[in-house]
Amino acid sequence: MTSRAATDAGRVRQRNLAAVLQLVHHSRGVTRADLTRALGLNRSTIGDLVAALAEAHWVDEVDDAPREGVGRPSPRVVPRSDRLVAAINPELDAVDVALVALGGRVVARQRVVIDSPTVDQGVSIAARVVGELASEHPSSRVVAAAAAIPGLVRTDDGVVRFAPHLGWREEAFAEPLARALGVPAFAANDAQLGCRAELAFGAGLGARTMVYLNGGASGIGGGIVMSGQLVEGRDGHAGEFGHLSVDPLGPVCACGAHGCLEAVVSRAHLMATLGLEHPDDAELEAALSAADSSATDPIVATQFAALRVALRTIATMVNPELIVLGGYLATLWAAASTDDRRTVLAEALPAIAAGVRVEPAALGSSRLLIGAGELAWAHVVGDPLAG
Ligand SMILES: [Zn+2]
User: Which of 79, 200, 261, 336 is placed for a possible disulfide with 340 were both Cys, Cβ 3.0 to 4.6 Å?
Assistant: First the structure.
């Protein structure tokens, strides 16, 4: 073989290894027969690729699959957790840190309560907690990291352009995180990562056209999926639904404009009414359902009406099959009446509204961390035998 042919063959093999590992990762376990079908490769090539990935401790083969017709059962290829990625989500009231295994499985997690962390605080909390969590998993090693940031992030280099609620502007996050952890690190908008997680493992499984809206402690963001792929926009800022105008005469938003969705649909407003300081979404939802409804119903009604305006606009723009609501928006959805939920798109064009499913996120409070994990894994899975 010439050296050029050898290089080409090496590239093809790397691509095939990555494709197999990606399928094992997203399926959380797949038979060799399914791999053969999905990748259009022959059985012996799949056998060779799976053996290489098993040798490198990426996957195991287990014989728990049901028999398919006659012949030998096809062994199932499942992900191992020798390698982990670190996921970080700095927010207005806390820094969440997790270790995520292949298959989007959160193996360890810690929430550090802190008001308005700076970048330095976010990175040093991440470094300390990742160290603590990793020490509880001595047979695994952390190979990459990613942060889900509530703001505009330039995905090329992980620089936070503007996170209005945290007060971060033009600050590098991925680079100091990589230095602190000693592994490659990345950063992206939190809601886009939530969208990625719900698409890969949650309510959006198998969706081709989907919109995701995320309600976090510091506002609302989102993600758009077209043809099964996340739409990033020119600089990675597509889907900033929190700044859709729902009321031109409405309250001033953190961005300076009037009547943005997130200025009206305010988690902080409901928290203050309920007398809560640092609730997670489950605590907020429990407090809301236990509260005196005469105080909370008008707030829920006003916020749901604003959400209705935003969803009509989004549905009109995207023509989605599915709209997924995460975090605080899932709480608001649960608090609304059945009738409100049923008629949420009643004012959209009937041809667009017909058949759109609106569903709460399926991954609960792990969705942003699993999404950050997806970003980190994407950079590792592409070249499985690299290190
Ligand atoms: Zn705004």
Answer: 336
Helix 328-335 / helix 281-290 crossing angle, nearest 10 deg: 20
How is domain 203-362 classified at the architecture level of CATH?
A: 2-Layer Sandwich (3.30)
Q: How far, in Å, from the CA of 213 to the mean position of ligand 1?
A: 15
59-62 and 322-327 beta bridge pairing? unpaired
pLDDT, tens digit (0-9, with 9 covering 90-100), for 189-233: 999 999 999 999 999 999 999 999 999 887 899 999 999 999 988
Cα(243) to centroid(ligand 1), Å = 4
Matching CATH number, 3-79, of 3.30.70.141, 1.10.10.10, 1.10.510.10, 2.60.40.10? 1.10.10.10
CA of 81 to the centre of ligand 1 (A): 41
96 sits in which H/E element: strand 94-101
Q: Which CATH architecture has domain 83-193+368-381?
A: 2-Layer Sandwich (3.30)
